[in-house]
Design a protein that fits this description.
It is built from six helices and five strands. It has 208 residues and is of the alpha/beta class. It has one domain: 3-Layer(aba) Sandwich (Rossmann fold). A hairpin with a 4-residue loop joins β4 and β5. α2 runs antiparallel to α6 and α3 packs across α6. The longest helix has 16 residues. The N and C termini lie far apart (56 Å).
Length: 208
């Protein structure tokens, strides 16, 4: 039941805070995001700078970079994902407990970047794991990562724990793990995870 804002303000002045379990749950999750401590290429340098004193990622409760995926809930894919590294990234994601989130940092992590035509570079990590926030740039500055983190926090604030639009980890049909690609004769098998990504249909343009 919603509480009138005027009444809520008066109660807060008296030291009484009225809220819902869902709001409190989301507040706790968005205020203590623990990123996984790993980087793939030059974007990782910008990620490291974000945690330093000049930009101070600690202001947002995300300063605790964890060395183990079992203690982290945010994967920042910072840099170029080669096809040799893609299975390891998916394996690390599978080891993270729910709730877990992914930020694709930089053009390489989003689409392959300047190496898009290379035979050895994955054209976007969102082919295998769900990405919550994409950060364009080559490489994006620390301010861009801070903006992405604030966007992710707003996204967490709006998540529902019940109903048809509830978060995916409370959906019984949602897979707990995603398939780890393996090396085939010519490429990774499968080439993408159909549960999170699919090739776009060609756009049919009418005659001028």
């Amino acid at each position: 039941m919603a509480v009138d804002e005027g009444l809520q303000s008066e109660l807060q002045k008296a030291g009484v805070f009225v809220t819902s379990v869902e709001t409190l749950y989301n507040w706790g999750r968005r205020s203590s995001i623990w990123p996984l401590q790993f980087g793939l290429a030059c974007c990782a340098i910008e990620m490291i700078a974000t945690a330093c004193s000049r930009f101070d990622l600690a202001r947002f409760g995300a300063e605790v970079f964890r060395p183990s995926p079992r203690q982290a809930d945010l994967m920042i894919v910072a840099g170029t994902v080669t096809k040799k590294m893609a299975p390891q990234v998916v394996r690390l994601y599978n080891q993270m407990p729910e709730p877990r989130y992914v930020i694709a940092m930089g053009a390489c992590a989003i689409s392959g970047g300047p190496f898009k035509q290379g035979y050895n570079v994955l054209k976007g990590i969102d082919r295998y794991i769900p990405v919550d926030v994409h950060i364009p740039g080559c490489p994006p500055r620390p301010e861009a990562l801070l903006n992405a983190l604030m966007y992710l926090q707003r996204k967490i604030d709006g998540q529902r724990l019940t109903g048809t639009d509830k978060v995916r980890w409370y959906d019984e049909t949602d897979p707990a793990e995603f398939p780890v690609p393996e090396f085939g004769a010519h490429d990774l098998e499968p080439p993408f995870n159909r549960a999170v990504w699919g090739p776009q249909e060609p756009i049919q343009r009418g005659a001028a």
